[in-house]
UniProtKB/TrEMBL annotation:
Residues 21-317 form the Beta-lactamase-related domain. PANTHER family: D-ALANYL-D-ALANINE CARBOXYPEPTIDASE, D-ALANYL-D-ALANINE-CARBOXYPEPTIDASE/ENDOPEPTIDASE AMPH. This is Beta-lactamase. It holds the Pfam family Beta-lactamase. It comes from the Bacteria. Gene3D superfamilies: DD-peptidase/beta-lactamase superfamily (3.40.710.10). Residues 344-421 form the DUF7586 domain.
Length: 442
């Protein structure tokens, strides 16, 4: 059950929202915060009808996250792999040697936009009508992050070919309706805001066009209400239903090509943006199309999200991170009480181990995990590990993500490193052996 925010919190959230709408001169703006599975607060400002939670706005690139969900559903069904070449699924493009995973993470070197007219303002067609050439390949694969709307257009084509139906039909049936997002559609239906550009030097507006983007729809076609976008925030917070497994959602949020342990960064996972703001990691996506701006981001550590939709082409200050900061300051999450739980290993295997002369601590964590890291206040590598059925452990994050940890009574075997109970224990299988002279003072 959704618990509404406190009156003082509601005033702070409204004050921020009102200022962003006024200072950004958005003809209309709706915003809300999400917790407990739904909107705990929302407001509409400007020319927006009530109920403001049921007016459609264009989502723009938030559509990419919806597209990514279906691609990952195909992967989970065994129909494709993230390391598959695009040529295996959509033959005949200049991106045939780039992988599905690279397209999802904007690492495929595809051009930012599709060739031809500005796809966001002119009607779109089929893949064949794009007439892609080698000029649309602008960077080498996996060389650097390069945001690509074209790349997600190709992923939408992949989805359509695998399912034998249009991208729009697939995302409706496999994502939107199962999540209860019945008011999220490829084109505006029912009550919908008019997209507008605001003149830079005068308080006048110009209507922006709306159309079917064709193959590029997967990059930015969807329209949604604030209530539906709030439901999508709940999905990103873990209420995945039957759409995606929690493990796959977690996989989506891992940044590609960046060290997420360093402070102050922004990155991209598999169809989601990952931001580090004021010491908090936010997961979600922003969106913009001519006439519209949108945003949905969640702070999973606080189990809260924020959403925003506005009918303006540009000019708004960031609102969603500020709403999350206001909610966090006014109503910080009260975490569950600590309680004892059985460790996943015998106690005598926990504690200090040595990588060469460097001490590391193996700790049990809640949920049956292990954590291997330096002593408090000391530098060093740290990772969490989850158990496998064969008795080994797999790294979840940090330097040892994906690596195998094997635990023996007298040593740990991790990615060719052997950790021992004493520094360079001569009785353990230390790589290269231990000098028979032992520790001396020359």
């Amino acid at each position: 059950m959704v618990t509404p925010v406190l009156p003082a919190t509601a005033r702070a959230l409204l004050a921020r929202t009102a200022r962003v709408q006024r200072d950004g001169r958005a003809p209309s703006l709706v915003a809300g915060v999400v917790r407990d599975g739904g909107l705990a607060w929302s407001a509409g400002r400007g020319d927006v009808a009530e109920p403001h939670t049921d007016v459609q706005y264009r989502l723009g690139s938030i559509s990419k996250t919806v597209t990514a969900l279906v691609v990952l559903r195909l992967r989970d069904e065994g129909r494709l792999g993230l390391d598959d070449l695009l040529e295996e699924h959509v033959p005949g493009t200049p991106f045939g040697e780039r992988t599905v995973g690279q397209l999802l993470a904007h690492l495929a070197g595809a051009s930012s936009e599709s060739p031809g007219g500005w796809w966001e303002r002119v009607p779109g067609g089929t893949l064949a009508e794009l007439r892609l050439t080698d000029d649309d390949v602008v960077l080498g694969s996996a060389r650097r992050f390069h945001y690509s709307n074209l790349g997600f257009g190709l992923l939408g084509e992949l989805v359509a070919r695998h399912r034998g139906r249009s991208w729009a039909e697939v995302v409706r049936d496999e994502v939107l309706l199962p999540l209860g997002m019945a008011r999220t559609t490829p084109r505006p239906t029912g009550r919908a805001a008019q997209g507008a550009a605001v003149h830079p030097w005068a308080d006048v507006v110009l209507p922006e066009p709306e159309h079917d983007a064709g193959i590029m729809a997967a990059a930015g076609q969807l329209w949604a209400t604030l209530a539906d976008l709030g439901r999508f925030a709940a999905f990103l917070l873990g209420d995945t239903g039957d759409v995606l497994s929690p493990a796959t959602l977690e996989e989506m949020t891992v940044p590609a090509g960046i060290d997420s342990s360093s402070p102050g960064w922004s990155a991209y996972g598999l169809g989601v943006q990952v931001l580090r703001v004021d010491g908090h990691t936010l997961i979600g996506h922003g969106g913009s199309m001519p006439g519209f701006l949108a945003g949905v981001f969640v702070d999973r550590s606080e189990q809260a999200g924020a959403v925003m939709l506005a009918s303006t082409t540009s000019g708004l200050d960031p609102l969603v991170p500020g709403l999350l900061a206001d909610l966090r300051a006014a109503e910080p999450r009260i975490v569950d009480a600590w309680a004892p739980s059985p460790p996943p290993l015998p106690l005598d295997l926990l504690g200090v181990w040595f990588w060469g002369p460097a001490p590391l601590v193996l700790r049990a964590q809640s949920g049956g995990l292990l954590h291997l890291g330096p002593l408090p206040g000391r530098p060093g590598r740290a990772s969490r590990f989850a158990p496998r059925a064969d008795g080994t452990w797999v790294g979840l994050d940090g330097y040892y993500a994906g690596e195998t940890l094997r635990i023996a009574p007298d040593h740990l075997d991790l990615a060719t490193f052997v950790l021992t109970r004493t520094p360079y224990d001569p009785e353990a299988p230390v790589p290269g052996g231990v000098d028979e002279r032992g520790w001396t003072a020359p």
